Amino acid sequence: MGAFAEWQPRYAEHGIATFPVVILEDGRKTPAVKGYLRLGAKYSSQLTLKFGEHEAIGLACQRNKITVLDVDTPDERVLADALNRHGQTPFVVRSGSGNWQAWYRNNGEGRRIRPDPNLPIDILGDGYVVAPPSRGKKGTYELIQGTMHDLDGLPKMKGIANRNNRPAKATKEAEPVSKVLANTMREGSGRNDSLFRRALRNAHHARTQEELVEMVAHANKQFAEPLPSDEVLSCARSAWKYKMEGRLMVPGGEATAVVFKSDMDHLWDEPLALALLIRLRIANGYRNGAPFPLSQEIARSMNVSPPTYRAARDILAQRNFLEIIHPGGKGKNDPPIVRLL
Predict the structure, then answer these.
(1) Are 17 and 39 in contact (CB under 8 A)?
(2) Nearest CA to 92 among 157, 28, 146?
(3) How far apart are the C-alpha atoms of 273 and 271, rounded to whole Å?
(4) I need a surface site. Which of 74, 265, 267, 310 has the fewest CB within 10 A?
């Protein structure tokens, strides 16, 4: 069973009709059916019978009331800036090439390719997009923030023209991060925004919430007019909460791995398997689904015996967190080849 057959009903549960997509060797994406922009839920379900083995999923934006902020760069700072301008959303996707999608409720935005020629960003309120967990030559589309249930309550995008093509009313969220950074000595929200972003960066390094508060307080002293102590404490607490929930978007400090609540729900009875999953994601998550050799060195690093380690590995494979492409075992130079799902 391919990704389309498995995930078509999951999207359908949230009123979204999907269709199979072919991702070519050069990365181009082509719908496998005609009339995909008008495709409804009933026909979408029928497509799984013929195209069940397809590994890529598409959806029509306007038909499904979805607008996607398509960030055509792996630079997380560009994503953070865009979310600051257009509003936060609970549903964030990393594409197979490492770029980003942020999903919103469609509000008639239309399809706008590079509305700002200085930014590698498209606004896709029409046409179609490739959805997670599609698999292509460059990797797998991953849902890195949010769950399928968040599709039922997506926010509308801010900071752009509305249906009647009138400029959107300016809001604090729509203010570019670059402008905020250029005016960090300004009174009001600019300093607060700047301090919060500093808190998010420091949170990667802080070992305790108290240590983070000290870091943020030190950064606050650099302003010409420092913010009140209660603002410092609020920024630090919010950043610490992001860290505890695994929502820090910019990497830094020690190596990190994203672990969703659903991961823990599926591995609550196998803590060693969960620990192995975390280690594998830290060491190999950047590969975006590409295969890698699985050495027994990891068993020694976890202080467990090889049989215990192999049992944890097999549980990850049985529960679809890991695919064993080559079992290995034919000598010292024949390790298993696996990939993270």
Answers:
(1) yes
(2) 146
(3) 5
(4) 265
For the chain, counts of helices (H) and of strands (E): 11, 15
For residue 179, give the 3-state DSSP assignment: helix
Rounded Cα–Cα distance for residues 247 and 259 (Å): 10
User: Edge-to-edge, what's the strand order for the sheet holding 121-124?
Assistant: 111-112, 121-124, 66-71, 100-105, 92-94, 142-145
Q: Which amino acid is at 207?
A: R
Residue with tokens 């792996």: 74
Q: Residue 28 burial by CB count (10 A; 0-12/13-18/19+): exposed, middle or buried?
A: exposed
How much of the chain is in helix, strand and coil states, percent to nearest 5? 40, 15, 45
Specify whether the CB–CB gap between 192 and 226 falls below 8 A: no
DSSP state of 15: T
Which range, of 174-188, 201-215, 221-235, 291-305, averages the lowest pLDDT?
174-188
Q: What is the pLDDT of residues 272-308, one digit of tens each?
A: 989 888 888 877 654 556 777 887 777 777 888 888 8
Question: b/e string for 128-164 if b means 16 or more Cβ within 10 A?
Answer: bbbbbbbbbebbbbbbbbbebebbeebbbbbbbbeee
Reading the block at residue 232, the tokens are 């410092």
pLDDT tens-digit map of 96-119: 889 999 999 999 988 888 888 888
Going by C-alpha positions, the residue among 150, 229, 171 that lies closest to residue 195 is: 229
User: Do 56 and 6 touch, CB atoms closer than 8 A?
Assistant: no
| CA–CA separation, 341 and 333 (whole Å) | 25
> For residues 104 and 90, what is the distance between their CA atoms, to the nearest angstrom?
9
